[in-house]
Design brief:
Layout: H1 2-23, E1 28-29, H2 32-37, H3 39-42, E2 46-55, E3 60-63, E4 77-80, H4 91-99, E5 104-113, E6 126-138
Parallel strand pairs: 1-2, 4-6
Antiparallel strand pairs: 2-3, 2-5, 3-4, 5-6
Length: 143
C-alpha cells in the first residue's frame, strides 16, 4: 500500500511540474529599437532581440543601425555575457570575434533592464543580460 501511495505522489508531482513548465511563457521577440524606445514596457522581461554587439570603451554594448542614439535620446545598452560563454552554442565563435576587437550581429535571449539609472562603466541607460545566443555573425568592416 505504501509503495502505491509513493508512486501516486511521484506521478502527481511529475504531472504538476510538466503542467507548470508548459505555462512558462517563451520570451517575447522584440525589435531592438522597440525594446529601447519602450523600455518601461520591457523592463525586467525575458526577450529575444537582434542587434549588433560591439566592444565599447569599457564594456560590451548592443545597438542597432535602425535607431542610433542622438543628443536627445541615449539608446546605449550594456551587454552582459553569460558565465562560461565558451560552453554555449555559438559561444566560442562570439568569443573569437570579440577577442579580435570586432563586432558581431547577434540574436540573443536575455533580460532587459531600464530602471536603475545608469549601467556599467560606460554609464549606459539600459542593460541586457544575455542568457542564450541564437545566432552570431561577424560584422564585416567597411574599407
Amino acid at each position: 500500500m505504501a509503495i502505491k501511495t509513493a508512486k501516486v505522489v511521484i506521478v502527481s508531482v511529475l504531472v504538476a511540474v510538466c503542467l507548470w513548465a508548459g505555462q512558462v511563457a517563451a520570451p517575447s521577440s522584440v525589435k531592438f529599437c522597440d525594446l529601447v524606445k519602450s523600455s518601461a514596457t520591457y523592463n525586467g522581461r525575458l526577450v529575444t532581440t537582434s542587434a549588433t554587439l560591439f566592444p565599447g570603451d569599457h564594456s560590451l554594448l548592443l545597438h542597432s543601425q535602425e535607431c542610433e542614439s542622438t543628443a536627445d535620446l541615449d539608446l546605449r545598452t550594456q551587454a552582459i555575457l553569460p558565465p562560461r560563454l565558451e560552453s554555449l552554442p555559438h559561444g566560442k565563435k562570439l568569443e573569437s570575434i570579440l577577442n579580435h576587437g570586432q563586432s558581431a550581429q547577434v540574436e540573443v535571449v536575455g533580460v532587459f533592464e531600464s530602471n536603475a539609472g545608469r549601467y556599467g562603466p560606460d554609464i549606459a541607460p539600459f542593460r541586457f543580460t544575455i542568457t542564450r545566443l541564437n545566432t552570431v555573425t561577424k560584422v564585416r568592416r567597411d574599407r
